[in-house]
Amino acid sequence: MNSTSLTPLEVAELLKITKNTVYELIKRGELPAYKVGRKLRIDKEDIDNYIKSQKSSSISSPDTQQQEITLNDIPSEKNETKLDDKSIIICGQDMILDILSRNIESSLPSIKSYRSYMGSYNGLYNLYNNKASIASSHLWDWETSEYNIDFVKKLLPGIPCTIINLTYRTQGFYVQKGNPKNINGWEDLKRDDLSYVNREIGCGVRVLLDGKLRELNISSNEINGYNYEENSHLAVASAVARGKGDFGIGIEKVAKQIDNIDFIPLQKERYDLVIKTNDLENPIYKQILNIINSDTFKDELEGLGGYDLKDTGKIIAET
Fold first, then answer.
1. Does domain 81-319 have CATH number 3.40.190.290?
2. Which positions fall inside the PBP domain (predicted)?
3. For the segment 236-277, what is each residue's pLDDT rounded down to a tens digit?
4. Percentage above 90 pLDDT, the chain
5. How far is the C-alpha of 9 from the C-alpha of 6, rounded, in Å?
6. Rounded CA gap, 264 and 231, in Å?
7. Which backbone phi and psi does 261 adopt, to 5 degrees?
8. Cβ–Cβ contacts within 10 Å for residue 150, how many?
9. Phi/psi zone of residue 306: left (φ > 0), alpha (ψ -120 to 50 degrees), beta?
10. pLDDT tens digits, residue range 141-179?
11. Rg for the chain (alpha carbons), in Å?
């Protein structure tokens, strides 16, 4: 096949996705890209490979005669939309954030709401660096057994933040149908007859796993498959279903979407939104809180199933 160079916009049109999603695929290393001058280009062959395999790819290194790309070289949603009173960027991967984004645009027609599909750690980092308006977080601290609060304090030092609950989700192991390896809980991480499907650095699942390894005094070098990473709950569940690994961690809701998967519940996690406290004085953010607390929004989430909405809209902490 002759390699044809495409722009991010052309790739977006080809894949029927937004241009911002193309940038996210490049940032996460799922779609190789290179620079011609200051412009990004993607080879048609790499797009075909992405469609066929859905496997993560590494951005080319300098010795391939393609310029190495850093994340700063890739236009972010902030750079394109100029994060201001006319745009909102929400970081996180759960589908309920897509619903929130849609409700924001419906309630505030003059506001454009963008989604950035990155993990919790990187979302908080972007919030600190003014590259995001709102970050979702489900980061478990193995020393305190608490979610999010300590991470917000550490990753946004000196910046007052308000942590608002969105939902509770059940985290657990995805295992093959019938659980042929008899996997039951965290202690099974010590077994050398199992292969694991991991998540990328910076996401809440990876932080949870690494914390549990510390708690159980297990080295990551002892985990067969620790370096095999997928970039979503859905991808991990699919990999286990296809026999790419014996087990992996994810949320219960996704397990119900994949054939040949059983779910072993481990613990309930708190999934929160983090907003800079000063921003809450802005009428736009006040309306966003009204949306989260509205019966309409909660009813829509209730219809999805798999979410515990007992504290939705509740202020968990102010740091």
1. yes
2. 104-292
3. 998 999 999 999 999 998 888 888 899 999 999 999 999 999
4. 54
5. 8
6. 20
7. -130, 135
8. 15
9. left
10. 988 999 999 999 999 999 999 999 999 999 999 999 999
11. 20
Tokens of residue 222, six digits: 């002892």
d(CA 237, CA 198): 11
pTM of the shown model: 0.71
Domain ranges of the chain: 5-73, 81-319
Q: Which residues on adjacent β-strands are paired with residue 197?
A: 248
CA distance 314 to 221: 40
CB proximity list for 126: less than 8 A, separation 6 or greater: 89, 91, 116, 118, 132, 135
Q: Quick: pLDDT tens for 294-317.
A: 999 999 998 888 899 999 999 999
Give the separation between CA 97 and CA 292, rounded to whole angstroms: 11
Q: Which residue, chain included where needed, has tokens 């077994």?
A: 191
